[in-house]
Each structure stands twice: as structure tokens, then as C-alpha cells.
Amino acid sequence: MDFDPGAGQDVGKSCVIVSMGGKKIMFDCGMHMGYQDERRFPDFSQISKTGDFTHEIDCVIVTHFHLDHVGALPYFTEVCGYEGPVYMTYPTKALAPIMLEDYRKIMVDRRGEEEQFSTLHIQQCMKKVIAVDLRQTIRVSKDLAFRAYYAGHVLGAAMFYVKAGNSTVVYTGDYNMTPDRHLGAAQIDRLKPDLLITESTYATTIRESRLAKEAEFLNVVHTCVSKGGKVLIPISALGRAQELCILLDEYWERMNLKVPIYFSAGLTMQSNAYYKLLISWTNQRIKDTYVTRNAFDFKHVFPFDRTQLDGNGPCILFATPGMLTGGLSLEVLKHWAPVEQNLLIIPGFCLAGTVAQKLCSGKPTRVEVDKRTTIDVRCQIHLLAFSAHTDAKGIMDLVRQVEPRNVILVHGEKLKMDVLKARINNELGMPCHNPANHDVVEVPSHCLFNVEASKELVSLSMSSYYSSTHSAMEDSVTSDRCKPGIPVEGIVLTTNSSKIKLVHPFEVPSVLGEPKHDISFS
User: What range(s) does the Metallo-beta-lactamase domain occupy (predicted)?
Assistant: First the structure.
């Protein structure tokens, strides 16, 4: 029922293929930010040897706009040739092309790498996307339907409940079970699906309170700039960026500080415009204050100009990309890292092999960017997990809420996933798997079908039940519908019209038109 071309025992290039009820669904189509070779994209040849993906995949569902979930989509649709339906929420459809174009510019225009997809590919890809609303039931075909649920994490992120025939699955993508400054907590019904596929980025971590992290962040930033230092915060342009901008903007206003706060120009200005428009996807606090002041109209945050790179005086800069794999954040690091009074804050998860991850390992004095480039590191380095992913407690809470029959863990590190897998097995008694990439996992689905029961069977079964429980309910006994939870024992018969009928053993001869035979024992 499940196959992983990506994100199996790894964080990156999320792409999960689920076959159920005669249908095949691709959940997410991401890239791996830690690789610059063919391992960057999922191995699509595992899906179809002939390359006919349109007839192989019934639909693609993308959970949110982060590149590890949507980064390979233009390549899959425009280069590989998939022409089937692609679904995502309205905010994801608005923001995904911004992220994709920013990535393309960094890798091709600035680093001179071979182009995997063009600006035109991104535009053509987005034309194929069908936008959906939360809790809206979408019917892809006669036997395939799905519904989106609020996931928190980033603006527009959604978890998806899919039903194909009688088989059901919930795919979470990335989610957050606790609210933050601009988003609410994930919300989903008790769906009891055959399978829950959940992310497990922080499979063994119980995070400290948000307020404690925010206080620590504000303290280290304020301390650095008060001593004349510069603060570099490499970050994804969408999501944590807006969260930390709200935090700093409010603090600067409260403390009447004049130190400039900068943001990578262009990309963030464009994305902030969408954030202002998509207020309905934020938390209640943002909605309540929207009439008097839009929280994304920052008073103290300004676009960054490269001429300010070596300027005098303290400042704070939010720069993309978040893992220092290239672009402005890496360029600024080369200028600011050799200065002791400066500060580098890494505010989230770091993939192995990235510059950000190397800087988090101990206290490096030099870091290798590539074979030709190394950076002297004398600045302070502070790691603060301002992650939008749920922690181990949140994952367990979601599993309890959804009540699946089986669980599959993706988007995590193997050793930590093994610990969480054991917890789900032991504490919740649910079969749990954490497959590697290209592994196939088969899980049983719960098959429901309608059976026509004879009136005689219902009446006799209920009479027997109530007499055995010493319950006198004459009106129930004469009912022509069996009460839920009452055991029924009968003979299953199929008719020429393929209908299934359940009858009492006494009725079988007359229904089949056969004589009744009695056996006597002496």
C-alpha cells in the first residue's frame, strides 16, 4: 500500500506513493537540499519503467510550499511529462512558485549549475495545479476522493485524508500541534483510517516552551547589537521568517530600538504581500487585530541592499536560503563570520552535509563550503530550534487523535524513528513501520460492504440477544433494523445480481427452493 521514492529514513525530497483501492496517489514531490547531484530528486524510474507517469499516477497531492515537498514538481510535470491532476491549497499554489523561482535563481543564475527546470517550466506546472480549501471534499474520480485539514507548520500547509474504494489513508506532510505567533495548531477529525503516514522530524525530542525560546532569542540578539555586532539569521523566506519578524518587530517597538532589521529584498516583499492577503489561514490573534493593524506590516523591517553588506554599525539580517547552501545567506556569512563580535543564529533543522550543519557541529574555526572555498569562523554561533515541526509528544497526540489501524513514519532520521516506532507499538498497540527509500510496505485495509439482512434474521437475533441479557424491550424486538453492537449469526447467500444477503439458517431451504432435510440420531 505504500512506496517511498523519497523521505524514507531521511529528511528531504518527500515523495510517497500509495496504492489502494485500485488507485495510485503521489503525496508530495520534493527535492533534497543536501545533494547537488542526481540524488537531489526522487527516483521517478521506480514509479514507471516506461516513463508513462500520467497513466501510472491518478493524482499528485502537495501538502505545502517548502522545497523538500514541492521542489521536484516542475521537473516531474514538465520534464518527466506527468499531465494528471495536481492538488494543493490556495496559499500553497500562491507561494510555491515564489520558492521555486528563488531556488532556480540561486542554483543557476548565481552558482552556474545545470538548470533542472526553467522559469517557464514553473509557470506551466502551476497551470496544472487545482487549488482546494480546507475540509472541502474533492472527488478526483468515481472511487477516489480526498479532504484537506489544517496542519499549522506554514501558511497553507494541510494534512490530507484520502479514500479510494473502501481503503483510507491520512498523509500529514509537515505539521505542528502547538500554535505560534501567526499560525494555529493542527486540527483533524478522529478519522480511524487504515493507514496514517506521519512526519517524524523530531521523533525523540520534547521541545521547551515557545516563550522561553523567544526570550532567549531576543536576549542574544539584543546583546549582540548593543555591542555593535551584526546578526545573520539564515532562514527560509516563508514561515519562520514571518514568525521571527513579528517577534522582533514587536520587541523593537516595545524597547524603542533603532538598530535596522533587514530582510532579503524581493522574495520576502512579494511573499509578505500574500501573507497580508491570506489572513484567514493565520491564528485567531492575527485575525482579531487585522482590522486595526496587519501583523505583517512591519514597522522596523526593511529590504536589504547588497551595498549595505560591509556597512558600519550593528544590524540584523534575515537571508535565504536557510541552510547556507548558497545565495545571499552564504555570501553574507563569508563577510561577517571572521568578526568576533558578530552573531550567527541558526533557527531550525539542519540537513547533514550543509554548511549550516557543519557550523552546528562543535565550535569550528574554519568551515569548508566546497573544495575551493573555506570560511574563517570567529563569530558567535547560536542554535535555536524555532522549528515549525511538531515534537515527539505532538506526534503521539496526533496518532491518538486519528486512531489509525497502521502507522508509517517518514521524514525523519532512522535511529530516532526506531525509538518512536517502538513507542507507538508498545504504548498504542498499533503496527508501525519506518521504511527506507524504495521500500514497499503492505498494510491490510478495512473492507466494508453492505449486506441485506432478512427481517426474520433481525427479529430472531434481537429476541435472542434481549432474552440472554434479561432485557424486556418489545418495541426493539419487533423493529426491522438491528441495533448497533448486537451480534448477528446467519448464512451468507449471493444472488445472480451479485447482491449479498444474510438469512437465518431456518430460512435457507425456502430461499433456495430446496426441501428441508432432518437428521435423526438413535
Answer: 12-229
